[in-house]
Amino acid sequence: MPAGDHDRARRARLSLACRSGESRGSPRGSGCDVGGAACRRHRTRRARSPAAGDAGHRTGSTVGGADRLRRAFATGELLRPTDDVPNLVDLGRAVASASGAPVALRTRGAELLRDLIGEPSHLVLLLVDGLGLGLLERRSPTSTLRRLLATELRSVFPSSTASALTSLATGEWPARHAVVGWWTHMPTIDAAAVLLHYQRRSDGRPLDELGITPAQAFPTAPLIAQADRDTLSLLPREFVDSPYSRYASGGRPRRGYLTLRDAVDTVIERTRDAREPTFSYVYTPRIDSIAHEAGTGHPELDSAVAELEEVVEHLAVGLGAGSRLLVTADHGHLDAPVGRRHPLRPGSILDALQRVPPSGDPRAVYFHLRPDGAARFHDNFEGRFGNEFALLSIEELEEMELLGPGPLGDEARGRVGDAVAISLGASILGMPGVTGGRAWLAFSSHHSGLTPAEMRVPLLIA
């Protein structure tokens, strides 16, 4: 740890420990932050509710779904996305600030994370896709990953790679950056796109061939573009030149790697040889891929976490003087038992009431409904899936601030459709119109929901 940061980091850890008491599911408004007057959980939020007498009578109103979600938040079965606890949005702002970008931290969580980071000459962020906090909690308390754990962070909703990585890159919630799921509906083509692959979902056609520019797909600029230090993103070779990688790196240099150890050795050499401050970002998808295919209880996943631990040890020991290493994740994982995987079949009554196929993620599904079909859709969906999903109108989604504090931005509102189905646990929905859709249903584990297994992610600091 760079000289002079020890006391500040210790104070920040104590404060974060107090704040994270809510992160395991305590009702919002309980507990109190360190600092009394700085307490943010007791602030008054602007109330937004339907006009008197129209509850349950608005077009597309889904009375019951919101109440089920609130009960699940109160019991801790699900975790609310909130800026009242440290989260990935906070981390994105803290990292950008530590890299010299002129960024407003905005929340107490971001300020505390910024204190933990300190003033390193060389800042390294390792993003491990799918490394939920639960995977670390299975390891020995004396293991390196457990010993380096500084605090718990909360992901965004949907707890999906596309949404979470964009929140980390921009320091904004999905309500503002508008990447609202793995399959995001694009109004200009009236179809869903896989934004991280920059393709139309149904046929894989590149979005640029359909007239969509990166600025349209990703309307919020990444913060790292404003950094005043030498930056480098190290990504798997197959991703390094993608439109999303170019966007998320802020146009700064990128380098492809063959193995994670290769990337780590590049970072070590870079911090030892540099004559000016640096920021290095490393992304690895291996744990996420294994969890999807094999499930969270498979020995192969434990082996992959053990291998990651060796890489983190090697990196932490090898970094040059004045370096700080951060390790975090975009989301965790939750297994989907076979009996909880539900295909949405073409030709069904639900399908007939939709204007275009649904978008989003398996545990956060957006529906784009025919103008005259909202009430029938609600009744049919509730009858079939009401015990496993909460169906909300978009007004309710916004009122509950599930995509982040404040109102939906114009771009996000145009992408979320008319209703959203949110899993109350392990259940998933398989969508029609998805290339390889059956393969998605066959995955053993998924994410994108609000369960603690999916929403709780670690922040390791060395």
Structure description:
- By secondary structure, the protein is of the alpha/beta class.
- It has a domain of 125 residues: Gyrase A, domain 2 (2-Layer Sandwich), CATH 3.30.1360.
- The protein is 35% helix and 19% strand.
- The protein has 19 helices and 18 strands.
- A hairpin with a 2-residue loop joins strand 12 and strand 13.
- Helix 1 packs antiparallel against helix 4 and helix 3 packs parallel to helix 7.
- The longest helix is centred in the last third of the chain and has 20 residues.
- The N and C termini lie close together (7 Å).
List the helices and strands and how they pair.
Layout: H1 6-19, H2 65-75, H3 88-98, H4 108-117, E1 122-128, H5 133-137, H6 144-147, E2 149-154, H7 161-170, H8 174-177, E3 183-186, E4 191-194, E5 199-200, H9 214-217, E6 230-236, H10 243-248, E7 254-257, H11 260-273, E8 278-284, H12 286-294, H13 299-318, E9 323-328, E10 334-335, E11 341-343, H14 349-352, E12 354-361, E13 364-369, H15 374-385, E14 389-393, H16 394-399, H17 410-415, E15 419-423, E16 428-430, H18 437-442, E17 445-446, H19 452-455, E18 456-461
Parallel strand pairs: 1-8, 1-9, 6-7, 6-8, 11-16
Antiparallel strand pairs: 2-18, 3-4, 4-5, 9-18, 10-17, 12-13, 13-15, 14-15
Helix pairs in contact: 1-4, 3-4, 3-7, 11-13, 12-13
